[in-house]
Amino acid sequence: MTNLNELIIPAARQGEIEVLQELILRNADVNYCDLKGYTPLIIACYNNQIEAAKLLIAANANLNAADEGENTALMGVSFKGYTSIAELLIKHGADLDLQHGNGGTALMFAAMFGRNEILKLLLESGANKNIRDNKGQDAMELAALQGNEAGLRLLQASGY
């Protein structure tokens, strides 16, 4: 017999809503982790599958679960630039200030990779601008290092 938990991550990756609904109905673990620590919610978010993310959140997926590198779904969408999913995660209470293995936060990812819509959203939602990574750098310094002028202006306008 197939382990239902092993089916939930591929279904989340592909945004297969009907499959996810059936798996949830059959009590598959919405917080199941694969060998890299990915949960269905992390995978759905990393693959821009907003409907799958909504379904998993409604089924009580852990918003703040982290993979083996200590990256959360919010960090992943802040890196990739998926604003709608960032809004969804924040609306449902994702922790804005968790740090991954090197001390980076979702705000730092948004600043560093020029995801300025998400940067603005995180700032407006109360993300801590003063957190520093393991190298001692904060979001402002990371934006400056990457030449993210618009991000620098957003950070400065937020009272940085």
Automatic annotation (TrEMBL):
PROSITE patterns named among the record's database cross-references: ANK_REP_REGION, ANK_REPEAT
InterPro entries: Ankyrin_rpt, Ankyrin_rpt-contain_sf
Domain of life according to the entry: Bacteria
Keywords carried by this UniProt record: ANK repeat, Repeat
ANK repeats: 36-68, 69-101, 102-134
Name of the protein in its database record: Ankyrin repeat domain-containing protein
Taxonomic source organism: Pedobacter rhodius
